[in-house]
Each structure stands twice: as structure tokens, then as C-alpha cells.
Design goal:
Elements: E1 3-6, H1 11-15, E2 22-31, H2 34-45, E3 58-60, H3 88-93, E4 98-101, H4 107-116, E5 119-122, H5 128-132, E6 135-142, E7 151-165, H6 172-183
Parallel strand pairs: 1-2, 2-3, 3-4, 4-5
Antiparallel strand pairs: 2-7, 5-7, 6-7
Length: 185
């Protein structure tokens, strides 16, 4: 049974989340992919503020399709998280704590997660239309010129996710692989 959690992803909440745990997330999240992350990190390097407050924020690595009439957003499936690995430690250093995507993360990202109490959630790839049903509000807040990669603020209700890597660095991908290999002996 999935555990219901409400964002923002505070350090206290992050401490209670464990790799392998299924969660239903409600609250505000932000969207960004590699082009948006690059732009945000360049702004930070220039000493500029981000277009949103990153403190305890969760960023969904998604480039949603345009909304059809009557919809809040189009299909909103996760993109490969590794494309944000170069930027994730910087984003965590300014307060962003949660990341939603798919796929493995580099050791540098896991180390930053341990340092800043970050949590990496996995969303099911190929289920973008179903995930979009959890998105109740969507607002473009910056980088409109990036199209699908623009920065958006979303309000989600009961978005089904799995904790892939917790704040201690425990990694469901590693644990799952080890369990499988052990079962083959």
C-alpha cells in the first residue's frame, strides 16, 4: 500500500522516506529538463535568483505535451534523469531536495543527496497520460522559449511514485540488482 505524503519535501519528511517505498505525492512541484536546468545553473553562477524558491522544492524531469482543450496539461511522463546529473548537485545546494524522473543517477548525485538530504523518486516511463491525470494545476513560470522544457509550477494530487534513492544513499536499483543476482546462485 502506498504511503500518502504532502510536499514541500522538508528535511524532516525526507528522513522518513526509504528506498523501495511507494508513495502518493500531493503538493507543488516544478518541471524542468536539461535546457532549463542549464539555464538555472548559469543564473545561479551569475549570482541571480531562480524564478521560484528552491527551498524544499521537488523538480519533475518532464517536458509535457501541450494540453488539449479542457485539459490542465498534456501527457507528462518522466524523462531520463541522467541528463540532469550535471546540474542536480547545484540545484540541491540551493535547497531543492526532491527529484522525479526515471533511470539511474551518477555517484556524484547520490553524494549530493546524502549531503543535502535529497530524495530521488521514480515515475513510470510510458505512463505520461496517466500521470497527467494527477496534475490538477499547471502554470508556466519561466523560460517559455524552451517550449516543453519551460519551467512550470504544477499542483499534483496522489501522484504515484517510488522512492528510488533515499537521503542515506540507499538505492533501489542497486538493491534490486543485488537481490536478483543472489536469487540466481
Amino acid at each position: 500500500m502506498a504511503r500518502k505524503i504532502t510536499l514541500p519535501l522538508t528535511e524532516e519528511l525526507a528522513k522518513t522516506l526509504h528506498a523501495g517505498e511507494s508513495v502518493l505525492v500531493t503538493g507543488t512541484i516544478y518541471t524542468s529538463r536539461d535546457a532549463g536546468h542549464k539555464r538555472m545553473c548559469e543564473a545561479l553562477a551569475r549570482g541571480e535568483k531562480l524564478p521560484f524558491d528552491p527551498a524544499d522544492a521537488t523538480i519533475y524531469y518532464v517536458g509535457p505535451t501541450p494540453a488539449k482543450p479542457g485539459q490542465v496539461i498534456g501527457s507528462a511522463g518522466p524523462t531520463t534523469s541522467g541528463r540532469m546529473d550535471a546540474y542536480a548537485p547545484t540545484m540541491m545546494s540551493v535547497g531543492a531536495r526532491g527529484m522525479i524522473g526515471k533511470g539511474a543517477r551518477l555517484p556524484e548525485v547520490v553524494e549530493a543527496m546524502k549531503k543535502y538530504s535529497g530524495v530521488y523518486f521514480g515515475a513510470i516511463g510510458g505512463a505520461g497520460a496517466l500521470l497527467a491525470k494527477c496534475i490538477k494545476e499547471a502554470e508556466l513560470i519561466a523560460y517559455e522559449d524552451l517550449g516543453a522544457e519551460a519551467l512550470r509550477r504544477l499542483y499534483v494530487e496522489d501522484m504515484p511514485l517510488v522512492v528510488i534513492i533515499d537521503r542515506e544513499g540507499k538505492n533501489l536499483y542497486d538493491e534490486g540488482k543485488a537481490a536478483y543476482l543472489a536469487s540466481q546462485k
